[in-house]
Amino acid sequence: MSHHLTDTIVALATPSGIGAIGVIRLSGPDAIRIANSVFHGKDLEQQASHTVHFGTIHNDEGRILDEVLATVFVAPRSYTGENVVEVSCHGSDYIIQELMQLFIQKGARTANPGEYTLRAFLNGQMDLSQAEAVADLIASSSKSSHAIAMQQMRGGFSDEIKKLRQELIDFASLIELELDFSEEDVEFADRSKLEALVQQIQRIIKALLDSFQLGNVLKNGVSTVIAGRPNSGKSTLLNALLNEERAIVSEIAGTTRDTIEEVLNIKGIQFRIIDTAGIRDATDTIEAIGVEKTMQKVQSSALLVYVFDVVDTQPEEVRADLEKLVHENIHVLVVANKMDLNPYTKKEHYFPENSTADYHWVPVSALNKMNIDYLKESLHEAVLSKKINLESTIVANARHYEALQKSYEDLDRVLRGLSAGITSDFVAMDIRAALHHLGEITGEISTDDLLGNIFGRFCIGK
Which of 68, 79, 228, 289 is the most exposed place for a label (fewest CB within 10 A)? Predict the structure, then answer.
Protein backbone atom coordinates (compact mmCIF):
# COMPACT_ATOMS: atom_id res chain seq x y z
CA MET A 1 0.00 0.00 0.00
CA SER A 2 1.23 3.52 -0.71
CA HIS A 3 1.70 5.88 2.24
CA HIS A 4 1.63 9.58 1.29
CA LEU A 5 2.82 10.74 4.68
CA THR A 6 3.60 14.24 3.46
CA ASP A 7 -0.06 14.83 2.49
CA THR A 8 -2.52 16.55 4.76
CA ILE A 9 -5.62 14.38 5.12
CA VAL A 10 -9.22 15.17 6.09
CA ALA A 11 -12.19 13.03 7.10
CA LEU A 12 -15.35 13.09 9.13
CA ALA A 13 -14.55 11.64 12.57
CA THR A 14 -18.15 11.29 13.71
CA PRO A 15 -20.77 8.92 12.20
CA SER A 16 -22.46 9.95 8.96
CA GLY A 17 -25.98 11.29 9.14
CA ILE A 18 -27.74 14.22 10.74
CA GLY A 19 -26.79 14.95 14.35
CA ALA A 20 -26.20 17.79 16.78
CA ILE A 21 -22.45 17.91 16.14
CA GLY A 22 -20.10 16.76 13.42
CA VAL A 23 -16.32 16.62 13.87
CA ILE A 24 -14.02 16.96 10.87
CA ARG A 25 -10.40 16.02 11.47
CA LEU A 26 -7.39 17.34 9.52
CA SER A 27 -3.95 15.80 10.03
CA GLY A 28 -0.63 16.49 8.35
CA PRO A 29 2.06 19.15 8.01
CA ASP A 30 -0.39 21.73 6.57
CA ALA A 31 -3.39 20.92 8.77
CA ILE A 32 -3.22 24.09 10.87
CA ARG A 33 -2.44 26.29 7.87
CA ILE A 34 -5.37 24.90 5.83
CA ALA A 35 -7.83 25.29 8.71
CA ASN A 36 -6.55 28.77 9.45
CA SER A 37 -7.02 29.87 5.82
CA VAL A 38 -10.81 29.57 6.13
CA PHE A 39 -11.23 30.16 9.87
CA HIS A 40 -12.29 33.64 11.08
CA GLY A 41 -11.34 34.15 14.70
CA LYS A 42 -7.93 33.81 16.33
CA ASP A 43 -4.89 33.04 14.19
CA LEU A 44 -4.71 29.25 14.65
CA GLU A 45 -1.07 29.13 13.55
CA GLN A 46 -0.13 31.23 16.59
CA GLN A 47 -2.04 29.17 19.16
CA ALA A 48 -0.65 26.68 21.64
CA SER A 49 -1.30 22.94 21.34
CA HIS A 50 -4.42 21.48 22.95
CA THR A 51 -6.44 24.70 22.77
CA VAL A 52 -10.01 25.27 21.54
CA HIS A 53 -11.11 28.37 19.61
CA PHE A 54 -14.52 29.69 18.56
CA GLY A 55 -14.96 31.25 15.14
CA THR A 56 -16.67 31.04 11.78
CA ILE A 57 -15.66 29.33 8.54
CA HIS A 58 -16.10 31.24 5.27
CA ASN A 59 -15.92 29.93 1.71
CA ASP A 60 -14.03 31.68 -1.11
CA GLU A 61 -17.00 33.97 -1.79
CA GLY A 62 -16.93 35.13 1.82
CA ARG A 63 -20.16 33.32 2.74
CA ILE A 64 -20.29 32.01 6.31
CA LEU A 65 -20.74 28.23 6.24
CA ASP A 66 -20.98 27.68 9.99
CA GLU A 67 -19.95 28.72 13.47
CA VAL A 68 -17.43 26.18 14.73
CA LEU A 69 -14.98 25.24 17.45
CA ALA A 70 -11.46 24.53 16.20
CA THR A 71 -9.25 22.36 18.43
CA VAL A 72 -5.53 22.65 17.69
CA PHE A 73 -2.95 19.90 18.35
CA VAL A 74 0.64 20.77 17.46
CA ALA A 75 3.01 17.96 16.42
CA PRO A 76 4.14 15.71 17.96
CA ARG A 77 1.53 16.07 20.73
CA SER A 78 -1.40 14.61 18.83
CA TYR A 79 -3.01 11.25 18.06
CA THR A 80 -1.15 10.93 14.74
CA GLY A 81 2.05 12.65 15.88
CA GLU A 82 1.38 15.34 13.24
CA ASN A 83 -0.29 18.75 13.28
CA VAL A 84 -4.00 18.09 13.81
CA VAL A 85 -7.07 20.34 13.78
CA GLU A 86 -10.49 19.04 14.78
CA VAL A 87 -13.36 21.24 13.58
CA SER A 88 -16.60 20.78 15.52
CA CYS A 89 -19.50 22.02 13.40
CA HIS A 90 -23.27 21.56 13.36
CA GLY A 91 -24.18 18.05 12.25
CA SER A 92 -25.99 18.94 9.02
CA ASP A 93 -25.04 16.78 6.03
CA TYR A 94 -24.95 19.93 3.89
CA ILE A 95 -22.61 21.82 6.24
CA ILE A 96 -20.28 18.84 6.61
CA GLN A 97 -20.06 18.33 2.83
CA GLU A 98 -19.43 22.05 2.24
CA LEU A 99 -16.63 22.11 4.85
CA MET A 100 -15.07 18.90 3.55
CA GLN A 101 -15.01 20.22 -0.02
CA LEU A 102 -13.54 23.52 1.18
CA PHE A 103 -10.68 21.79 3.02
CA ILE A 104 -9.97 19.64 -0.05
CA GLN A 105 -9.92 22.76 -2.26
CA LYS A 106 -7.34 24.27 0.12
CA GLY A 107 -4.97 21.33 -0.27
CA ALA A 108 -6.09 18.42 1.88
CA ARG A 109 -7.07 15.02 0.48
CA THR A 110 -9.63 12.54 1.76
CA ALA A 111 -8.12 10.08 4.24
CA ASN A 112 -7.98 6.37 3.47
CA PRO A 113 -9.63 3.90 5.89
CA GLY A 114 -7.56 3.73 9.07
CA GLU A 115 -5.02 6.27 7.84
CA TYR A 116 -5.05 8.36 11.03
CA THR A 117 -4.17 5.32 13.14
CA LEU A 118 -1.69 4.12 10.50
CA ARG A 119 0.12 7.46 10.78
CA ALA A 120 0.05 7.18 14.57
CA PHE A 121 1.77 3.77 14.24
CA LEU A 122 4.31 4.91 11.65
CA ASN A 123 5.09 8.02 13.72
CA GLY A 124 5.74 5.95 16.83
CA GLN A 125 2.66 7.07 18.78
CA MET A 126 1.61 3.43 19.32
CA ASP A 127 2.72 -0.04 18.30
CA LEU A 128 0.84 -2.32 15.92
CA SER A 129 -1.08 -4.31 18.54
CA GLN A 130 -2.23 -1.04 20.17
CA ALA A 131 -3.33 0.25 16.75
CA GLU A 132 -5.41 -2.89 16.19
CA ALA A 133 -6.96 -2.39 19.62
CA VAL A 134 -8.29 1.01 18.49
CA ALA A 135 -10.47 -0.77 15.90
CA ASP A 136 -11.53 -3.34 18.50
CA LEU A 137 -12.42 -0.57 20.96
CA ILE A 138 -14.61 1.18 18.38
CA ALA A 139 -16.32 -2.14 17.58
CA SER A 140 -16.71 -3.24 21.23
CA SER A 141 -20.32 -3.96 22.11
CA SER A 142 -20.02 -5.40 25.62
CA LYS A 143 -18.17 -4.77 28.87
CA SER A 144 -15.84 -7.72 28.29
CA SER A 145 -14.87 -6.83 24.70
CA HIS A 146 -14.35 -3.22 25.84
CA ALA A 147 -12.09 -4.36 28.72
CA ILE A 148 -9.90 -6.48 26.42
CA ALA A 149 -9.55 -3.68 23.84
CA MET A 150 -8.71 -1.10 26.53
CA GLN A 151 -6.10 -3.38 28.13
CA GLN A 152 -4.45 -3.95 24.76
CA MET A 153 -4.67 -0.30 23.67
CA ARG A 154 -3.03 0.86 26.90
CA GLY A 155 -0.05 -1.36 26.08
CA GLY A 156 -0.49 -4.26 28.52
CA PHE A 157 -0.16 -6.95 25.86
CA SER A 158 2.59 -5.06 24.00
CA ASP A 159 4.64 -4.65 27.18
CA GLU A 160 4.51 -8.39 27.82
CA ILE A 161 5.61 -9.23 24.27
CA LYS A 162 8.38 -6.61 24.28
CA LYS A 163 9.73 -7.98 27.58
CA LEU A 164 9.85 -11.53 26.18
CA ARG A 165 11.50 -10.30 23.01
CA GLN A 166 14.13 -8.27 24.87
CA GLU A 167 15.13 -11.24 27.01
CA LEU A 168 15.60 -13.31 23.86
CA ILE A 169 17.55 -10.52 22.16
CA ASP A 170 19.96 -10.33 25.11
CA PHE A 171 20.80 -14.03 24.77
CA ALA A 172 20.77 -13.98 20.99
CA SER A 173 23.39 -11.23 21.00
CA LEU A 174 25.74 -13.46 23.00
CA ILE A 175 25.24 -16.34 20.57
CA GLU A 176 25.85 -14.00 17.61
CA LEU A 177 29.05 -12.93 19.37
CA GLU A 178 30.13 -16.58 19.51
CA LEU A 179 29.67 -16.80 15.74
CA ASP A 180 32.03 -13.83 15.30
CA PHE A 181 34.68 -15.70 17.31
CA SER A 182 33.87 -19.16 15.93
CA GLU A 183 37.51 -19.92 15.09
CA GLU A 184 38.56 -19.40 18.72
CA ASP A 185 36.03 -21.94 20.11
CA VAL A 186 34.69 -19.67 22.88
CA GLU A 187 31.24 -19.80 24.49
CA PHE A 188 29.67 -16.57 25.71
CA ALA A 189 26.10 -17.84 26.24
CA ASP A 190 25.49 -20.29 29.08
CA ARG A 191 23.46 -23.08 27.40
CA SER A 192 21.71 -24.14 30.61
CA LYS A 193 20.57 -20.55 31.28
CA LEU A 194 19.39 -20.21 27.67
CA GLU A 195 17.39 -23.43 28.00
CA ALA A 196 15.78 -22.20 31.24
CA LEU A 197 14.96 -18.84 29.63
CA VAL A 198 13.39 -20.45 26.57
CA GLN A 199 11.27 -22.73 28.76
CA GLN A 200 10.13 -19.74 30.83
CA ILE A 201 9.20 -17.77 27.70
CA GLN A 202 7.35 -20.80 26.33
CA ARG A 203 5.29 -21.03 29.52
CA ILE A 204 4.24 -17.40 29.17
CA ILE A 205 3.45 -17.82 25.46
CA LYS A 206 1.46 -21.00 26.22
CA ALA A 207 -0.66 -19.08 28.78
CA LEU A 208 -1.31 -16.40 26.14
CA LEU A 209 -2.22 -19.03 23.55
CA ASP A 210 -4.57 -20.73 26.01
CA SER A 211 -6.34 -17.41 26.62
CA PHE A 212 -7.22 -17.01 22.92
CA GLN A 213 -10.35 -19.16 22.96
CA LEU A 214 -11.80 -17.15 25.83
CA GLY A 215 -10.53 -13.88 24.36
CA ASN A 216 -12.13 -14.58 21.00
CA VAL A 217 -15.41 -15.44 22.73
CA LEU A 218 -15.37 -12.26 24.81
CA LYS A 219 -14.54 -10.15 21.78
CA ASN A 220 -16.99 -11.64 19.27
CA GLY A 221 -19.68 -13.13 21.52
CA VAL A 222 -20.34 -16.71 22.59
CA SER A 223 -21.89 -18.82 19.85
CA THR A 224 -24.74 -20.53 21.73
CA VAL A 225 -27.16 -23.01 20.14
CA ILE A 226 -30.56 -23.91 21.58
CA ALA A 227 -31.34 -27.43 20.33
CA GLY A 228 -33.80 -30.18 21.16
CA ARG A 229 -36.80 -32.11 19.87
CA PRO A 230 -39.84 -30.40 18.30
CA ASN A 231 -42.22 -28.85 20.86
CA SER A 232 -39.63 -29.07 23.65
CA GLY A 233 -39.99 -25.30 24.15
CA LYS A 234 -36.87 -24.02 22.41
CA SER A 235 -38.51 -20.93 20.89
CA THR A 236 -40.41 -20.21 24.12
CA LEU A 237 -37.07 -20.40 25.95
CA LEU A 238 -35.47 -17.97 23.48
CA ASN A 239 -38.34 -15.53 24.02
CA ALA A 240 -37.98 -15.88 27.80
CA LEU A 241 -34.24 -15.21 27.65
CA LEU A 242 -34.74 -12.14 25.46
CA ASN A 243 -37.85 -11.08 27.37
CA GLU A 244 -39.67 -10.47 24.08
CA GLU A 245 -41.71 -12.45 21.55
CA ARG A 246 -38.89 -12.94 19.04
CA ALA A 247 -39.69 -16.48 17.83
CA ILE A 248 -43.06 -17.85 16.65
CA VAL A 249 -44.42 -20.36 19.16
CA SER A 250 -47.10 -22.94 18.39
CA GLU A 251 -48.11 -26.46 19.35
CA ILE A 252 -47.50 -27.63 15.77
CA ALA A 253 -44.28 -29.66 15.65
CA GLY A 254 -41.70 -28.29 13.23
CA THR A 255 -42.84 -24.64 13.42
CA THR A 256 -39.21 -23.43 13.47
CA ARG A 257 -37.79 -24.37 10.06
CA ASP A 258 -34.76 -22.09 9.91
CA THR A 259 -32.34 -20.78 12.51
CA ILE A 260 -33.11 -17.56 14.39
CA GLU A 261 -30.16 -15.59 15.77
CA GLU A 262 -30.29 -12.94 18.49
CA VAL A 263 -27.76 -11.29 20.82
CA LEU A 264 -28.14 -11.49 24.61
CA ASN A 265 -25.88 -9.54 26.97
CA ILE A 266 -25.37 -11.20 30.37
CA LYS A 267 -23.19 -9.29 32.84
CA GLY A 268 -21.08 -7.72 30.10
CA ILE A 269 -20.64 -10.87 28.00
CA GLN A 270 -22.45 -11.18 24.67
CA PHE A 271 -24.10 -14.46 23.73
CA ARG A 272 -25.08 -15.02 20.11
CA ILE A 273 -28.15 -17.17 20.76
CA ILE A 274 -29.29 -19.42 17.88
CA ASP A 275 -32.72 -21.07 17.99
CA THR A 276 -32.81 -24.10 15.72
CA ALA A 277 -35.25 -26.50 14.08
CA GLY A 278 -36.34 -29.48 16.20
CA ILE A 279 -34.32 -32.68 15.95
CA ARG A 280 -36.39 -35.48 14.44
CA ASP A 281 -36.88 -37.45 11.22
CA ALA A 282 -38.13 -34.67 8.96
CA THR A 283 -41.48 -35.01 7.21
CA ASP A 284 -40.59 -32.82 4.21
CA THR A 285 -37.59 -31.44 2.33
CA ILE A 286 -37.69 -27.97 3.92
CA GLU A 287 -37.79 -29.38 7.45
CA ALA A 288 -34.95 -31.77 6.55
CA ILE A 289 -32.80 -28.80 5.52
CA GLY A 290 -33.65 -27.09 8.84
CA VAL A 291 -32.61 -30.18 10.85
CA GLU A 292 -29.36 -30.41 8.88
CA LYS A 293 -28.63 -26.72 9.61
CA THR A 294 -29.27 -27.42 13.30
CA MET A 295 -26.54 -30.07 13.33
CA GLN A 296 -24.16 -27.74 11.49
CA LYS A 297 -24.77 -24.92 13.98
CA VAL A 298 -24.16 -27.25 16.92
CA GLN A 299 -20.86 -28.40 15.45
CA SER A 300 -19.60 -24.82 15.08
CA SER A 301 -20.80 -23.52 18.46
CA ALA A 302 -19.05 -23.18 21.81
CA LEU A 303 -22.13 -23.65 23.98
CA LEU A 304 -25.09 -26.01 23.62
CA VAL A 305 -28.36 -25.44 25.46
CA TYR A 306 -30.15 -28.78 25.05
CA VAL A 307 -33.86 -28.39 25.85
CA PHE A 308 -36.21 -31.29 26.49
CA ASP A 309 -39.82 -31.69 27.64
CA VAL A 310 -39.90 -33.40 31.06
CA VAL A 311 -43.44 -34.71 30.36
CA ASP A 312 -43.01 -36.34 26.94
CA THR A 313 -39.29 -37.12 26.57
CA GLN A 314 -37.91 -40.40 27.90
CA PRO A 315 -34.45 -40.66 29.53
CA GLU A 316 -33.09 -42.86 26.74
CA GLU A 317 -34.27 -40.28 24.16
CA VAL A 318 -32.42 -37.49 26.00
CA ARG A 319 -29.23 -39.51 26.13
CA ALA A 320 -29.57 -40.45 22.44
CA ASP A 321 -30.01 -36.80 21.45
CA LEU A 322 -26.96 -35.71 23.43
CA GLU A 323 -24.88 -38.49 21.91
CA LYS A 324 -25.67 -37.02 18.46
CA LEU A 325 -25.13 -33.40 19.47
CA VAL A 326 -22.18 -33.28 21.85
CA HIS A 327 -18.69 -32.83 20.45
CA GLU A 328 -15.31 -32.39 22.10
CA ASN A 329 -15.11 -28.59 22.28
CA ILE A 330 -18.65 -27.76 23.34
CA HIS A 331 -19.96 -26.95 26.82
CA VAL A 332 -23.43 -28.39 27.48
CA LEU A 333 -26.32 -27.13 29.60
CA VAL A 334 -29.21 -29.60 29.87
CA VAL A 335 -32.43 -27.60 30.31
CA ALA A 336 -35.32 -29.61 31.72
CA ASN A 337 -38.32 -27.64 30.49
CA LYS A 338 -42.00 -27.64 31.54
CA MET A 339 -41.08 -28.36 35.15
CA ASP A 340 -44.38 -26.81 36.22
CA LEU A 341 -46.12 -29.89 34.73
CA ASN A 342 -43.80 -32.41 36.37
CA PRO A 343 -42.10 -30.67 39.33
CA TYR A 344 -40.57 -33.83 40.80
CA THR A 345 -38.25 -34.46 37.85
CA LYS A 346 -34.62 -34.87 38.93
CA LYS A 347 -31.31 -35.14 37.09
CA GLU A 348 -30.69 -38.70 38.32
CA HIS A 349 -33.89 -39.83 36.54
CA TYR A 350 -32.12 -39.11 33.25
CA PHE A 351 -28.46 -39.52 34.19
CA PRO A 352 -27.81 -42.28 36.77
CA GLU A 353 -25.14 -41.62 39.40
CA ASN A 354 -22.75 -44.04 37.67
CA SER A 355 -23.17 -42.15 34.36
CA THR A 356 -20.03 -40.62 32.84
CA ALA A 357 -22.08 -37.67 31.56
CA ASP A 358 -21.50 -34.59 33.71
CA TYR A 359 -23.87 -32.04 32.18
CA HIS A 360 -25.00 -28.93 34.02
CA TRP A 361 -28.69 -29.45 34.87
CA VAL A 362 -31.05 -26.44 34.69
CA PRO A 363 -34.74 -27.04 35.51
CA VAL A 364 -37.05 -24.34 34.05
CA SER A 365 -40.53 -23.51 32.91
CA ALA A 366 -39.93 -21.31 29.87
CA LEU A 367 -43.61 -20.49 29.47
CA ASN A 368 -43.85 -19.19 33.04
CA LYS A 369 -40.30 -17.75 32.95
CA MET A 370 -39.44 -19.86 35.98
CA ASN A 371 -35.69 -20.16 36.75
CA ILE A 372 -34.67 -18.11 33.68
CA ASP A 373 -32.35 -16.00 35.84
CA TYR A 374 -30.61 -19.18 37.00
CA LEU A 375 -30.21 -20.24 33.36
CA LYS A 376 -28.62 -16.87 32.55
CA GLU A 377 -26.28 -17.25 35.52
CA SER A 378 -25.37 -20.75 34.30
CA LEU A 379 -24.60 -19.41 30.81
CA HIS A 380 -22.36 -16.73 32.31
CA GLU A 381 -20.56 -19.23 34.55
CA ALA A 382 -20.03 -21.59 31.61
CA VAL A 383 -17.96 -18.92 29.87
CA LEU A 384 -16.02 -17.75 32.90
CA SER A 385 -15.55 -21.20 34.43
CA LYS A 386 -11.79 -20.63 34.43
CA LYS A 387 -12.28 -17.44 36.45
CA ILE A 388 -10.21 -15.38 34.02
CA ASN A 389 -9.53 -11.85 35.23
CA LEU A 390 -10.37 -9.35 32.49
CA GLU A 391 -7.51 -7.17 33.76
CA SER A 392 -5.00 -9.91 32.92
CA THR A 393 -3.50 -10.21 29.44
CA ILE A 394 -5.91 -12.00 27.11
CA VAL A 395 -5.24 -12.70 23.42
CA ALA A 396 -8.29 -11.93 21.27
CA ASN A 397 -6.69 -11.32 17.88
CA ALA A 398 -6.21 -14.19 15.41
CA ARG A 399 -3.08 -12.58 13.92
CA HIS A 400 -1.48 -12.37 17.36
CA TYR A 401 -2.43 -15.99 18.07
CA GLU A 402 -0.81 -17.17 14.83
CA ALA A 403 2.40 -15.21 15.53
CA LEU A 404 2.59 -16.56 19.10
CA GLN A 405 2.03 -20.11 17.84
CA LYS A 406 4.87 -19.77 15.32
CA SER A 407 7.15 -18.27 17.97
CA TYR A 408 6.35 -21.17 20.33
CA GLU A 409 7.29 -23.65 17.59
CA ASP A 410 10.54 -21.75 16.89
CA LEU A 411 11.45 -21.96 20.58
CA ASP A 412 10.65 -25.69 20.53
CA ARG A 413 13.29 -26.07 17.83
CA VAL A 414 15.74 -24.08 19.98
CA LEU A 415 15.22 -26.53 22.87
CA ARG A 416 15.59 -29.57 20.62
CA GLY A 417 18.74 -28.09 19.15
CA LEU A 418 20.25 -27.41 22.57
CA SER A 419 19.41 -30.96 23.65
CA ALA A 420 21.03 -32.39 20.53
CA GLY A 421 24.10 -30.18 20.93
CA ILE A 422 23.83 -28.49 17.55
CA THR A 423 26.13 -25.62 16.68
CA SER A 424 25.50 -22.00 17.62
CA ASP A 425 24.61 -20.89 14.07
CA PHE A 426 21.57 -23.19 13.94
CA VAL A 427 20.47 -22.16 17.46
CA ALA A 428 20.81 -18.50 16.42
CA MET A 429 18.68 -19.13 13.32
CA ASP A 430 15.75 -20.47 15.37
CA ILE A 431 16.05 -17.66 17.93
CA ARG A 432 15.96 -15.11 15.09
CA ALA A 433 12.78 -16.75 13.77
CA ALA A 434 11.15 -16.52 17.22
CA LEU A 435 12.16 -12.86 17.50
CA HIS A 436 10.74 -12.20 14.03
CA HIS A 437 7.32 -13.65 14.90
CA LEU A 438 7.15 -11.81 18.24
CA GLY A 439 8.12 -8.60 16.44
CA GLU A 440 5.26 -9.06 13.97
CA ILE A 441 2.79 -8.61 16.84
CA THR A 442 4.00 -5.17 17.91
CA GLY A 443 5.00 -4.04 14.41
CA GLU A 444 8.75 -4.07 14.96
CA ILE A 445 8.63 -6.42 11.98
CA SER A 446 6.00 -5.33 9.42
CA THR A 447 5.28 -5.31 5.68
CA ASP A 448 3.13 -3.10 3.47
CA ASP A 449 0.71 -5.98 2.83
CA LEU A 450 0.31 -6.60 6.58
CA LEU A 451 -0.32 -2.90 7.30
CA GLY A 452 -2.79 -2.63 4.43
CA ASN A 453 -4.77 -5.60 5.73
CA ILE A 454 -4.87 -4.30 9.32
CA PHE A 455 -5.69 -0.64 8.70
CA GLY A 456 -8.14 -1.40 5.88
CA ARG A 457 -10.56 -2.63 8.60
CA PHE A 458 -10.88 0.87 10.11
CA CYS A 459 -13.48 3.49 9.33
CA ILE A 460 -12.36 6.47 7.23
CA GLY A 461 -12.20 8.94 10.14
CA LYS A 462 -9.93 6.82 12.31
Answer: 289
